[in-house]
UniProtKB/TrEMBL annotation:
Molecular function terms from GO: DNA-binding transcription factor activity; transcription cis-regulatory region binding
Classification via Gene3D superfamilies: Homeodomain-like (1.10.10.60), Tetracycline Repressor, domain 2 (1.10.357.10)
Keywords of the record: DNA-binding, Transcription, Transcription regulation
Region feature Disordered, mapped onto this chain: 1-54
Protein name: DNA-binding transcriptional regulator, AcrR family
Lineage, top ranks: Bacteria, Bacillati, Actinomycetota, Actinomycetes, Kitasatosporales
Entry-linked SUPFAM superfamilies: Homeodomain-like, Tetracyclin repressor-like, C-terminal domain
Alphabetical list of PROSITE patterns matching this protein: HTH_TETR_1, HTH_TETR_2
Organism: Streptacidiphilus jiangxiensis
Segments of skewed composition (Polar residues): 1-11
Keyword hit for DNA-binding: yes
Length: 251
């Protein structure tokens, strides 16, 4: 029979062993209070609403539909545009401060397909591209009734036309002037003629056909090349050609 003292000794040793094991586990376990979280902080949400191209597109298309149905530029209202586009007036005013700014955006969008006037491989190619962009724009205007109407109406709104001229027309005129001036500095064009006048000689025939002669053909893709070559080469009768005499009736 085992004495009670021996049993107590075994129990005490067993309890000591368990206590040591538990102590080691506590010492090796990571402390949750001192551990720094490695999860990246969530970035703050961006304030404001992103500019929605889809919303702007629906507003422009809504304006064009109203114009197609007979509305005039002056007769367009923000209320009617918002209703046609399926947006609220506040949506429009968040993007444009007034109706004129909205109309200017419409006009700018209609002109956005024009190729930029810039340097190309040669002066001739640069001028042909500039003149042909006028032809293509005129073709687009003739194919859409609202485009033709807008071109006629905009001059009746002086403030809007002034802003349109400054935003759309004048930058292209400055670009053409710079193109010609650089060619003059390179010795490719005469320097005794003003750069603006040379530019008008180049683009004038196409503008005349597009604006003053609505029935004049613009479908020929070689028309710009014909105009530019005629200006660059000169239109005076040379010494080895014979002038063409007019008929008696002056035709």
């Amino acid at each position: 029979m085992v004495s009670s003292n021996a049993g107590n000794t075994v129990d005490s040793e067993f309890e000591s062993l368990i206590s040591r094991e538990l102590g080691q586990q506590r010492s090796t376990a990571p402390s949750t209070s001192s551990t720094t979280s490695t999860t990246p902080a969530t970035p703050p949400a961006k304030r404001g609403r992103p500019r929605s191209e889809a919303v702007e597109s629906s507003i422009v298309e809504g304006m064009l539909r109203l114009l197609d149905r007979g509305s005039s530029l002056a007769g367009l209202t923000v209320e009617a545009i918002a209703a046609e586009a399926g947006v609220g007036k506040a949506t429009i005013y968040r993007r444009w401060p007034d109706k004129d700014a909205l109309l200017l955006h419409l006009l700018t969008q209609l002109e956005s397909k024009l190729d930029p006037i810039c340097e190309r491989a040669t002066l001739r190619e640069s001028l042909i591209a500039a003149v042909d962009s006028i032809r293509l724009n005129a073709v687009n205007r003739r194919s859409g009734s609202n485009l033709a109407m807008i071109g006629a109406e905009i001059r009746a709104i002086p403030d809007l036309y002034a802003r349109y001229h400054e935003t759309v027309i004048e930058p292209r005129r400055r670009a053409l002037r710079a193109l010609i001036h650089d060619a003059q500095l390179r010795g490719e064009l005469r320097v005794d003629i003003d750069a603006d006048l040379l530019g008008e000689l180049v683009v004038g025939p196409m503008l005349s056909r597009a604006i003053l002669h609505p029935d004049g053909s613009l479908e020929d893709p070689a028309l710009a090349t014909t105009i530019v070559d005629a200006v660059l080469e000169g239109i005076a009768v040379s010494s080895n050609t014979h002038p063409v005499h007019s008929d008696a009736d002056g035709t």
